[in-house]
Design goal:
Elements: E1 9-13, E2 17-25, E3 28-35, E4 39-40, E5 44-45, E6 50-57, E7 60-64, E8 67-71, E9 76-79, E10 85-89, E11 95-102, E12 110-111
Antiparallel strand pairs: 1-2, 2-3, 3-11, 4-10, 5-12, 6-9, 6-11, 7-8, 7-10
C-alpha cells in the first residue's frame, strides 16, 4: 500500500510535535516527524531498537551520548541500541525527518531524567 502523511496514523507528542506512522511493522517501524522551532524530545535510550534519523527539511540537532550533531537536509545519523540520545530543533524553522527503527520502538524506550 502506498503511504504518506495523508493516510497514516497521526499522533501528537512533546510540545506541538507531529508523527505519522508510515510502516507499523513490529520488526521495522518507519515514522515521519515534524518538530516546530525550539522543541525537543526527552533524552532516552532503547534496549533493542536500532534507529536511523534522516532529515528531509530543516536542521535537526541530535545529542548522542553527550555529543551534538547538526544534521542538515539529506543527511542522517544511526543510533545503536543502548545509546542515550535526544532529538532537538534548535532552529527557528520546522524540521521534518524520517525515523527508521528495527525492531519497533514500541515498549522499548527508557526516558532519562
Amino acid at each position: 500500500m502506498k503511504r504518506g502523511i495523508d493516510n497514516s496514523e497521526h499522533y501528537r507528542w512533546g510540545d506541538g510535535c507531529d508523527g505519522w506512522v508510515l510502516s507499523p511493522s513490529p520488526d521495522m517501524m518507519i515514522i515521519q516527524e515534524r518538530m516546530p522551532p525550539r522543541t525537543a524530545e526527552k533524552r532516552h535510550f532503547h534496549l533493542t531498537a536500532r534507529q536511523f534519523f534522516y532529515v528531509l527539511a530543516g536542521e535537526l540537532t541530535m545529542e548522542l551520548e553527550g555529543e551534538h550533531h547538526l544534521l542538515p537536509p539529506m543527511t542522517g545519523i544511526e543510533i545503536v541500541p543502548g545509546a542515550r540520545h535526544q532529538a532537538r530543533n534548535d532552529s527557528d524553522s520546522d524540521v521534518h525527518f524520517i525515523v527508521a527503527s528495527s525492531p519497533s520502538t514500541r515498549g522499548d524506550r527508557t526516558d532519562i531524567g
